[in-house]
Amino acid sequence: MSKIPHIKSVETRYLEERDRLFQGLQNLDRRKFLKVSTGAAAAALAAGASNHFHSFLPVNVAYAAPGAAGPGFTFAYISDSHLYIKKTNERFVRQLLRAVDDVNKLDPQPDFVFYGGDLAQLGRKEELDLGAQILKNIKAPVHMMVGEHDWFFDMGQHWNQLFGPENYSFDHKGVHFVVLMSVHEKDFWTARGMDPAERMHTVAGLDNAMQSAFEVGGPTRDWLKKDLDKVSKSTPIIVFSHSPLYKLYRPWNFWTDDAEDVQSLFKPFDRVTVLHGHTHQVLTNSIGNIQFHGMLSTAWPWPYAPQGLPALTVQMNRPNPFDSNDGLGDGQIIVHPDGMVDMLYNLWNRNPMQVKASYLSSGGKNDKPIVPTLASY
Amino acid sequence: MKKPVLLALVLTAAALAANADDPAPGAASTKTVKLCDNKTTVEVPNDAPKTRAEGQKISDALMAQWKETNPNSTWEQGEIEAHQVVAPEDNSALVGTGQSSTYGVVTQQTVQVWKNETYKTALYGSKVFHSGDELGSEIAVSCDMCHPRAANTHPETYPKFQPQLGRVAMLRDMINWCIEHPVRGKVLAADDPKMRAMEAYILAQRKGTPLDYGKR
Question: Are A303 and B152 inside 8 Å of each other by CB?
Answer without folding.
Answer: yes
